[in-house]
Amino acid sequence: MKQYSLFLVFILFNSCQYFDKQVPSEKELLQKELKAINWKEVDEYPSMVDCDKIEDKKQRQQCFFEVLTQLIQEKLCSDTLAMLYPELDTIEVKVTVFPNATMKFEPQFPKDSVAYDKIKIDSILKVRLVDFPKINPAIKRGIPVKTQFILPVILKVE
After folding, report:
1. Measured in whole angstroms, how far is the alpha carbon of residue 127 from the centre of its chain?
2. pTM for this one?
3. Would you say residue 158 has pLDDT above 60?
4. Strand boundaries in 13-146, DSSP class E
């Protein structure tokens, strides 16, 4: 019986260490969570009313890009851009959608391009690319975020 009680006391003292688990610090948990987040992807891409009905994430993204490209082409096709630069058939436009649902458009040119008056083209884009339908910003973990993408816009269709 004495051995049994000695064994019981030994187990009792050793078992306390199993209950004394280290709680991870707040900084460690934060760093672990930040590493787990994919900062290059959003949970939901920007969307328009026309595309909100689509359930599939990739199809909704494709719909948004197609509708936005079409709207930009319609706004630029009747402009002097084609007359000023007849050789310009496609322009790449960097679109920024901000968390407050506003948009910014910037033309993208090759770095060595001097054939175009970049300031004039930029001013034409700013004047023409206004009054878009309401756009819902991209969502990351339930929070609206800023997104940027480049759309090729065809100015001449032959």
Report:
1. 25
2. 0.69
3. no
4. 47-48, 90-97, 103-108, 135-136, 138-140, 143-145
